[in-house]
Amino acid sequence: MAETNVGGRDRLARALLAALLTIVAVSTLRKGKRKTGLLALVGALGLGFNATTCFCGLNKTLGIDTTDE
């Protein structure tokens, strides 16, 4: 089984933030603000990846495990 260190409320928060950042990215890209839109998109992809795979490299580096929440 793959290593996991993201769970519970942490996973839900990451998924919600990914959805919010996706909306921000689309909105800002439509307004022509490329840097802000792309930055929001990168954040959305990262948080979405964390929520989907239940793994965060930064959590691993810092020794944080929220799977027991």
Gist of the model:
The protein is mostly helical and 69 residues long.
Can you walk me through this structure?
- The protein has 69 residues and is mainly alpha-helical.
- Helices cover 71% and strands 0% of the residues.
- It has helices at residues 8-30, 34-53, 57-62.
List the helices and strands and how they pair.
Layout: H1 8-30, H2 34-53, H3 57-62
Helix pairs in contact: 1-2
Fraction in helix = over 70%
Q: For the CA atoms, what is the radius of gyration? A: 14 Å
Largest sheet: none
Ranges with pLDDT <50 over ≥5 residues?
Answer: none
Mean pLDDT: 95
Give the DSSP E fraction (strand runs of 2 or more residues): under 5%
Number of strands: 0
What are the secondary-structure elements, in order, as H or E? HHH
How far do the termini sit from each other?
20 Å
- Count of spatially separate domains: 1
Q: Could you say which structural class the secondary elements and strand pairing correspond to?
A: mainly alpha
Task: Enumerate how many helices there are, as a single number.
Answer: 3
Overall body shape: elongated
